[in-house]
Amino acid sequence: PSSKREGFPSPPSTSWSDIGALHGVREELHMAIVQPIRRPEVFKRLGISAPRGVLLWGPPGNGKTMLARAVASEGRAGFIAVKGPELLNKYVGESERSVRAVFARARASSPCVIFFDEIDALVPRRSDKLSEASTNIVNTLLTELDGLSERKAIYVIGATNRPDMIDPALLRPGRFDKLLYVDLPKGLERVEIGRTVVNREQVPVRGGLLGDDWRGVEELLASDRADGMSGADIAALVTEAATTALRDALGQAMHHSHGEDDLHGPSTEQSLREQAE
Ligand code: ATP
């Protein structure tokens, strides 16, 4: 029950320019959701129906949440984000009510994008041992998806690391019928993400904080030593490099101004940081 859940959902601030690489997925999302929101009449005239739901899948930390936010933002649509496990409630019927409430909120402020993160937790593959409660949640979600008419301009994006763990009924036509794989970045894609993070976080690279160190970071990202790094890992690396560079710069400033040896007292560091700002 965060404050973001209250009131009307407004478009998020994330845009395509905050995201590096993933060009194929962006293009697909643009055609599947952004364009239908912006130009509904064109799609109607041509008799093309936009997919009701898109499922983003792939390893964690590679931009699924960012993509969903950017789609809503580019379509100037409201955005409601729900984490699958958050909707699970031990009280009978409470989870279904929550699912219905999410769709009701979306209808009240269309166009709107609903993002179900960790959707596998909400709608696990139905098996014999699946509880009645889970079955009810799956059915509620299916009913809501089936009930969405295009004119309402409500689009649902699900995200999961484990698409094999999702109830297959959800993947039928008219439901989550578009599956997009959000892959780990490779080689130069990692460099592109690094640069995006630098721009986004406004890390002064040229003639500034990272200076020559930045070339080292880019070389690392491009090399196979960085294989397996996720977008989130890259963001952490860039932030870390910037923090280290800041600390070094502050240390040098300290030497020049006071010539002291102990640079690591928290109070000195704090006051230096304030001076630097
Ligand atoms: P999870 O499956 O863990 O929910 P996710 O795929 O939804 O992960 P995000 O939450 O969108 O991943 O990304 C986590 C963080 O990693 C972002 O806040 C961002 O800083 C960084 N990041 C990941 N991918 C990218 C990218 N392609 N471009 C820029 N930043 C990225």
From TrEMBL:
Annotated segments matching region Disordered: 253-277
GO molecular function, one term: ATP hydrolysis activity
Keywords noted in UniProt: ATP-binding, Nucleotide-binding, Repeat
Residue stretches of biased makeup (Basic and acidic residues): 271-277
GO CC term (a single one): nucleus
AAA+ ATPase domain span: 50-186
Homology family: Belongs to the AAA ATPase family.
Protein name: AAA-domain-containing protein
Species for this entry: Calocera cornea HHB12733
Shown stretch of the complete protein: 429 to 705 of 772
